[in-house]
């Protein structure tokens, strides 16, 4: 638990030192980044709840007001994957928030990134990327407007090409190891970093 | 070894351990296949696992202590297992328990990542069976009657080693915890457990001999890790401009931000170069060398004294600025200066060579790192998948940029599909080919024209210099620099217009554009150098043919002139005259190095001015115009003709690279160049950050930053190589001026090395060096390097082919299955 000192001065005093040390141990973030994340997180809460930021959950609508998530086509999936809420309402606690920042940070390994990327892209949460998942993925990427969407023939062709490239065992779906095999060779993936603007 | 009380899974484990594989978890394949098949079952079992976890955890401590207790005790209970195996089994099981907790978060995701080696083992859902198994074992062990609680029994060497191994495993687990894709809660609990275990048993390990030393070692390791972590934090905090760049990333995406990251990296390199030249060349001369006015070469000549302090002269880097530590000519050729016996000429030479060497090392290291990240460069095999999975730029936080990104992704999808679908039907291939040839011809003409113009202008400026610059106005003085900057500004636009003839795919057109601009800058720079060198060579040839003569003449003139002060006889040896002659009046010899240095400094300064003015006019004024005149204009300025400008990444990066090339070329003759460049980059950063946020809009067509990175690095390396050629040439083959600089009086600049070897090193060193620089030794060395290059190239090719073969085999095996 976070010792809530009455004063708002110095966010360092709001996370106890040993917990801060553990967070540094368990995430790819540095101490300053964790403290900044704490500040940003507590700003998402209404004033009364800010002292207990460590243990409160922020509802999904609030999280999505962060600029990088707002512009992101996978915003809902990201919240869903990182949330540990028992009520499945995709609300995030501070630790979930740290998890998310850690995975997206520059220093995270490509293994952990690809693991989470797979879960984000798996729209139906069944452990594999099948055609429906890929279709939804393409629709997310091409934006909301009707004119920017692909026609169904183009969609078919695209998905077929992707499966030809990535589906090694030819079972019609992409599983985690195939996904990791494909994505780890990409030069862009390692740099897929979102330094969430925590200042 | 069949063990009755062990179930099937553990039996396999025991076999593995029996075979002596320490880390038995390497045998992952059988488990994954089973895991795969059980993927569906996992959901059902999940909830049960959660319940079991809790009880199991409490059971752990008891379990462990019991096991420890029988460490020295008799193993009669497990008579069917050998002691070593028993302990290994225990170790395996223990870590198995810890890792099993991961399953409740992993859910039903099929398959595991590569680093989940331990996890793979746990993935077979024998959880319940294993738990039952353990309970049985417990009972058996406790039933075996060994005194479970005795910690006081002496621990044998073997057990000590075992324990150590377990502690090491725990430590490794702690270190790699952040790599595991678990939820924070779970990571925290695993961490706490592992830490408790390590704390508890590290003490135990220390028993016996060397306890104090072990404890000390442990404490030092902890302190070292804490120090490392703090140092990492400190280093991250020291990185300048991080927030500015993040803001730009969020607004424009990663490709624009990559320019600023490149700028920051260049700034770092220039800081190091600045440190070298400032600390080892400029400061020692200023502090310990003879002061201004004591020597002829350090004083402004009487003729120029009147204008020496004018701002116009200073801006032109003549007058007082020329006769200072900023330029080559000021330095004295004394072998050692000051009470420190600082070897000035040697330091000057080594700093020059060292800067070049450092730059090479840094650029090559960055290229190698980028090549590593590229991961082998399998460009075409995953085209679509990469477009799908990795095209989104997670740094974008601005809705307009996001919209542009969406549009760009859609276009790239459609293009890729079309390219894949139909073969290229070249409509009217002949016309296209003709137009492309025409375009290339026009581009070549432009390049040749600009080269000739520069040559012409440089020649003219030499003439002006000969006739005395005072007769001419501002334009004639700065003709060369202005012309070069203007060419650099307008020719790329010309290339843009030419490229519209060619009708290429935008990415290919961009490459052609970059190539042409590169050729333009390179051509300009080299023409400039050649023109300068021509002039220097003329002077040098003149000097060479008359050198000794001229030296004698000048020296004779000097002595005559000194003698005229005596009103008497001409002294044979010019010993220290009793009359102090003002150095300002002494006639001077020519000093081409300072002249070259001055040219470069002027070029850099004018380039800097041009860039800033272009930004202010081209971006800022244009944005102001579009914004405020839109109300009273006939057509929509924002969507129509001028509109807001986009940030030109490639143009700016090329400008930066060529600026750096000029610095590398000129810093041997003007030690102040790195300092000027540091100042320039510093102000550039702020000005361009402001300009980009204030006046630019996000680009419509977005290209990836990553793949270009190594392309720019390769250009930088090429420029570095080309920039150092002129300096090396002058060091090796042109004699230094006899009247100025740290190498005056020598026939070649590099003689300072042999001089140092003679005077400052023991004689055998000189001999060794002499042998080493024998061509008979150097040629075989070069041959050896060429051979090793060839060998490494061949090896890397064979690895790539082997890679392809394995991939094909993988596919065919799967198909067969």
Automatic annotation (TrEMBL), chain A:
Q: Which PANTHER family match?
A: CALCIUM AND INTEGRIN BINDING FAMILY MEMBER 1, CALCIUM AND INTEGRIN BINDING FAMILY MEMBER 2
Record-linked InterPro entries: CIBP, EF-hand-dom_pair, EF_Hand_1_Ca_BS, EF_hand_dom
- Write one Pfam family the protein is assigned to: EF-hand_7
Where does the record place the EF-hand domain?
109-144, 154-189
According to UniProt, the name of this protein is CIB1 protein
Gene3D superfamilies the record matches:
EF-hand (1.10.238.10)
Keywords per UniProt: Calcium, Magnesium, Metal-binding, Repeat
* Source organism: Erithacus rubecula
According to the UniProt entry, its GO molecular function terms are:
calcium ion binding; magnesium ion binding
**SUPFAM superfamilies documented for this protein:** EF-hand (SSF47473)
Q: Where is the signal peptide?
A: none
UniProtKB/TrEMBL annotation, chain B:
An example Gene Ontology molecular-function term: voltage-gated calcium channel activity
Which GO terms of type biological process are on file?
Answer: detection of mechanical stimulus involved in sensory perception of sound; vestibular reflex
Where does the record place Basic residues bias? Answer: 57-70, 124-142
Q: Which UniProt keywords apply?
A: Membrane, Transmembrane, Transmembrane helix
UniProt lists compositionally biased (Acidic residues) regions at: 1-15, 148-158
Note whether Transit peptide occurs among the keywords.
no
Q: Which GO terms describe its cellular component?
A: plasma membrane
Q: Quick one: where's region Disordered? A: 1-158
Query: Compositional bias (Basic and acidic residues) spans?
Result: 16-32, 113-123
Enumerate the spans annotated as TMC domain.
591-706
**Residue ranges crossing the lipid bilayer per the database entry:** 265-287, 308-331, 346-363, 434-458, 513-533, 600-621, 711-732, 768-792
The protein's location, in the record's own words, is: Membrane
Q: Membrane topology per the record?
A: Multi-pass membrane protein
Homology family: Belongs to the TMC family.
UniProt-recorded name of the protein: Transmembrane channel-like protein
Species annotation: Erithacus rubecula (European robin)
Task: Give the classification, highest ranks.
Answer: Eukaryota, Metazoa, Chordata, Craniata, Vertebrata
What is the primary gene name for this protein? Answer: Tmc1
């Amino acid at each position: 638990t976070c010792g809530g000192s009455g004063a708002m001065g110095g966010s360092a005093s709001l996370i106890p030192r040993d917990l801060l040390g553990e967070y540094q141990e368990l995430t790819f973030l540095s101490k300053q980044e964790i403290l900044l994340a704490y500040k940003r997180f507590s700003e998402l809460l209404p004033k009364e709840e800010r002292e207990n930021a460590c243990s409160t959950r922020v509802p999904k609508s609030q999280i999505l007001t962060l600029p990088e998530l707002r512009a992101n086509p996978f915003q809902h999936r990201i919240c869903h994957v990182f949330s540990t809420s028992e009520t499945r309402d995709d609300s995030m606690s501070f630790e979930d928030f740290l998890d998310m920042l850690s995975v997206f940070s520059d220093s995270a390994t490509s293994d952990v990134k690809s693991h989470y990327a797979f879960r984000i892209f798996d729209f139906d949460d069944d452990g594999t990327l099948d055609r429906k998942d890929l279709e939804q993925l393409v629709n997310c990427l091409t934006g909301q407007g009707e004119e920017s969407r692909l026609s169904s023939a183009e969609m078919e062709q695209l998905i077929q090409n992707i499966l030809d490239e990535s589906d090694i065992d030819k079972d019609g779906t992409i599983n985690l190891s195939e996904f990791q095999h494909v994505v780890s060779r990409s030069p862009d993936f390692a740099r897929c970093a979102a330094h969430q603007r925590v200042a | 070894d069949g063990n009755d009380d062990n179930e099937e899974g553990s039996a396999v484990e025991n076999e593995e351990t029996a075979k002596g594989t320490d880390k038995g978890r390497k045998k992952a394949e059988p488990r994954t296949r089973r895991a795969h098949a059980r993927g569906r079952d996992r959901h059902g079992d999940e909830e049960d696992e959660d319940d079991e976890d809790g009880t199991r955890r409490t059971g752990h401590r008891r379990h462990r202590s019991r096991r420890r207790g029988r460490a020295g005790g008799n193993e009669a209970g497990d008579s069917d297992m050998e002691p070593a195996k028993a302990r290994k089994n225990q170790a395996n099981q223990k870590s198995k328990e810890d890792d099993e907790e991961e399953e409740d978060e992993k859910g039903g995701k099929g398959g595991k990542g590569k680093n989940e080696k331990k996890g793979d083992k746990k993935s077979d859902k024998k959880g319940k069976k294993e738990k039952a198994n353990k309970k049985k074992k417990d009972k058996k062990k406790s039933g075996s009657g060994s005194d479970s609680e005795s910690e006081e029994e002496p621990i044998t060497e073997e057990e000590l080693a075992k324990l150590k191994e377990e502690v090491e495993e725990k430590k490794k687990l702690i270190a790699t915890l952040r790599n595991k894709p678990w939820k924070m809660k779970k990571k925290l609990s695993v961490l706490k457990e592992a830490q408790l275990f390590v704390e508890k048993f590290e003490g135990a390990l220390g028993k016996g001999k060397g306890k104090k030393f072990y404890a000390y070692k442990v404490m030092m390791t902890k302190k070292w890790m804490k120090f490392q972590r703090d140092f990492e934090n400190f280093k991250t905090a020291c990185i300048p401009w991080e927030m500015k760049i993040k803001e730009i990333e969020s607004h424009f995406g990663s490709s624009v931000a990559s320019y600023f990251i490149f700028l920051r990296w260049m700034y770092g390199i220039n800081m190091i170069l600045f440190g070298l030249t400032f600390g080892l060349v400029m400061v020692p001369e200023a502090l310990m060398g003879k002061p201004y006015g004591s020597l002829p070469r350090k004083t402004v000549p009487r003729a120029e004294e009147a204008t020496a302090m004018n701002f116009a002269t200073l801006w032109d880097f003549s007058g007082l600025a020329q006769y200072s530590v900023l330029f080559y000519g000021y330095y004295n050729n004394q072998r050692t200066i000051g009470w420190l016996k600082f070897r000035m000429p040697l330091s000057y030479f080594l700093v020059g060579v060292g800067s070049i060497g450092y730059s090479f090392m840094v650029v090559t290291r960055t290229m190698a790192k980028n090549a590593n990240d590229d991961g082998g460069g399998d460009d075409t095999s995953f085209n679509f998948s990469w477009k799908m999975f990795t095209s989104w730029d997670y740094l974008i936080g601005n809705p307009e940029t996001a919209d542009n990104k969406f549009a760009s992704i859609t276009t790239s999808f459609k293009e890729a599909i079309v390219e894949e679908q139909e073969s290229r039907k070249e409509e009217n291939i002949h016309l296209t080919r003709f137009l492309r040839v025409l375009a290339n011809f026009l581009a070549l003409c432009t390049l040749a024209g600009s080269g000739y113009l520069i040559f012409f202008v440089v020649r003219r400026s030499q003439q002006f210099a000969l006739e005395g610059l005072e007769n001419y106005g501002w334009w004639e003085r700065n003709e060369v620099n202005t012309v070069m900057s203007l060419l650099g500004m307008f020719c790329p636009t010309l290339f843009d217009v030419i490229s519209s003839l060619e009708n290429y795919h935008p990415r290919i057109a961009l490459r052609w554009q970059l190539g042409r601009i590169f050729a333009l800058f390179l051509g300009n720079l080299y023409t400039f150098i050649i023109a300068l060198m021509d002039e220097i060579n003329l002077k040098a040839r003149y000097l060479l043919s008359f050198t000794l003569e001229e030296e004698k003449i000048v020296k004779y003139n000097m002595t005559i002139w000194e003698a005229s002060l005596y009103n008497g006889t001409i002294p044979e040896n010019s010993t220290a005259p009793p009359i102090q002659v003002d150095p300002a009046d002494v006639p001077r010899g020519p000093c081409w190095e300072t002249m070259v240095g001055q040219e470069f400094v002027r070029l850099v300064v004018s380039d800097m001015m041009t860039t800033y003015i272009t930004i202010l006019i081209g971006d800022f004024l244009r944005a102001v115009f579009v914004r405020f005149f839109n109300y009273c204009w006939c057509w929509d300025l924002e969507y129509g003709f001028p509109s807001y400008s986009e940030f030109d990444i490639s143009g700016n990066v090329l400008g930066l690279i060529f600026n750096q090339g000029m610095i590398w070329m000129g810093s041997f003759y003007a030690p102040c160049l790195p300092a000027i460049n540091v100042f320039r980059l510093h102000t550039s950063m702020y000005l361009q950050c402001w300009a980009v946020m204030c006046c630019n809009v996000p680009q419509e067509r977005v290209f990836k930053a990553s793949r270009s990175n190594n392309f720019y690095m390769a250009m930088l390396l090429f420029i570095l190589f080309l920039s150092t050629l002129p300096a090396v040439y002058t060091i090796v083959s042109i004699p230094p001026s006899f009247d100025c600089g740290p190498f005056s009086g020598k026939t070649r600049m590099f003689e300072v090395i042999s001089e140092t070897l003679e005077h400052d090193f023991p004689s055998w060193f000189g001999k060794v060096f002499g042998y080493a620089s024998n061509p008979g030794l150097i040629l075989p060395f070069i041959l050896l390097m060429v051979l090793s290059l060839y060998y490494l190239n061949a090896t890397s090719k064979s690895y790539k082919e082997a890679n392809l073969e394995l991939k094909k085999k993988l596919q065919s095996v799967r198909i067969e299955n």
